[in-house]
Amino acid sequence: MSSPALRVAVVGGGIGGMTTAKALVRCGIDVTVFEQAPQLGEIGAGVLMTPNSVRHLERMEMGAALAAAGARIGKGSQYYRMDGTPVAPILTTDSSGWNGMYGMHRADLLAILADGLPAEAVRTGHRCVGMEQDAAGVHLAFDNGESAEADVVIAADGINSVLQPYVVEPSSPVHSGSVAYRGLIPVERLPEWPYGVSQLWMGEGKHFLVYPVRAGALLNYVGFVPSDERTAESWSAPGDPVALAAAFAGWDPRIEGLLAQVETTYWWGLYDREPLSTWTKGRLALLGDAAHPMLPHLGQGANQAIEDAVALAVLLTGVDRAGAPRALRAYEELRRQRVAQVQRGARANGRRYDSAYDDLDERDAEIADSVRFRSWLYDHDAEAEARALAPAH
Ligand SMILES: Cc1cc2nc3c(=O)[nH]c(=O)nc-3n(C[C@H](O)[C@H](O)[C@H](O)COP(=O)(O)OP(=O)(O)OC[C@H]3O[C@@H](n4cnc5c(N)ncnc54)[C@H](O)[C@@H]3O)c2cc1C
User: Which residues form the FAD-binding domain (predicted)?
Assistant: First the structure.
């Protein structure tokens, strides 16, 4: 008699949770996502999708939707000093003969991930408040009084994960000393702005990033400035466009021109954390920011969540209820070291970007290191790596 099909519950319907659902469905695994919000949604900001995740979304047949809703960053990244002097050659993204990088509006990405999932696979208005597990399975409790049973639970409930303490003592957030101002500007207000390139300006203690999203209709900007001001971690607060413009006064006139167009902006306190010592306990595994919150200086939080999701789905394929905890440990083993390297890389990139670099040779060497790191990052194929491991675990 064949064993009953594995039932997976995903807590959290953000980019990590929804990609997990999509990847599990593709592998023929039964999944239900429980999201606390009354409907799926994302903040009005950009997210840069890099080749290490785009290749997986394409394999899951989301390539055409990404190309339609995203803004292709076909010319890679260009770095400048604060006065606008270019500091390094453009990083092309085809280091392995494969080229794919998109600036996306976060809401567009979430809609693409949700599209095509069975309607009953996503249950909104379900805030998970706790769980219990034993050898037979997991029991989830929600604040609306409902409950659910599953063989495996994936906690994709973000940086302030409710389920993380069921796996490991949470690591303490440490304020990085910087905040990020973010917003979107309609491109018709800056018609001369170049398309297809992500641009980053660096100065002492600050850096400024701009890339297009929504098929080039909007420009996404992020201004990183030193500040001890704090928001609750991962929460944003309305910012003052005048204060933002003042922080970058005297920088490249292109930035001053862009900031003159900002009507509303939001800021986030940026926190750093040490990697967690483990991501799994029995039938529960952490994924995305719940497993590995990181600084945004490599633009990898969401991209790494997508890598997690595809690796997890491969490793759960063909696994029965009894084998599930072992498959989750294999997922953790496969992913934890790479992600810790990315977390450290994001920290190092933040230091690079915020350096004034009076010594030009040192600066060029640092940027070359950063470009080499990105090649390592982008060339990775999380699905292929998981497939190579799958028969052995
Ligand atoms: C300034 C800034 C810029 C960034 N830029 C990039 C970038 O360019 N590229 C990139 O890859 N990453 C970027 N990131 C990081 C990225 O935003 C996160 O890593 C990513 O959103 C994590 O996805 P997630 O699904 O793990 O968590 P989240 O996006 O936080 O989603 C968690 C979901 O779980 C739900 N939830 C929470 N608690 C519960 C509960 N108890 N029960 C049910 N549901 C619950 C939430 O409502 C939410 O929908 C950036 C971050 C910042 C701050």
Answer: 7-344
Q: Does residue 305 lie within any of the structural domains?
A: yes
**Model pLDDT for residues 366-379, shown as the tens digit of each residue:** 777 887 888 889 99
- Its domain, for residue 346, covers 7-71+106-172+273-353+381-389
CATH of the domain at 126: 3.50.50.60
Euclidean distance between CA atoms 100 and 92, whole angstroms: 10
ipTM of the complex as predicted = 0.98
d(CA 252, CA 230): 28
Tokens representing residue 63 in the block: 């390539």
pTM comes to 0.95
Pocket test for ligand 1, best of 32, 33, 35, 230 (most atoms within 8 A of CB): 35
Residue 130 DSSP symbol: E
Active-site annotation holder among 79, 166, 181, 211: 211
Count: domains in the chain: 1
Active site residue 221: no
* Integer CA distances (angstroms), 280 to 234, 299, 327, 331, 335, in order: 23, 25, 10, 9, 12
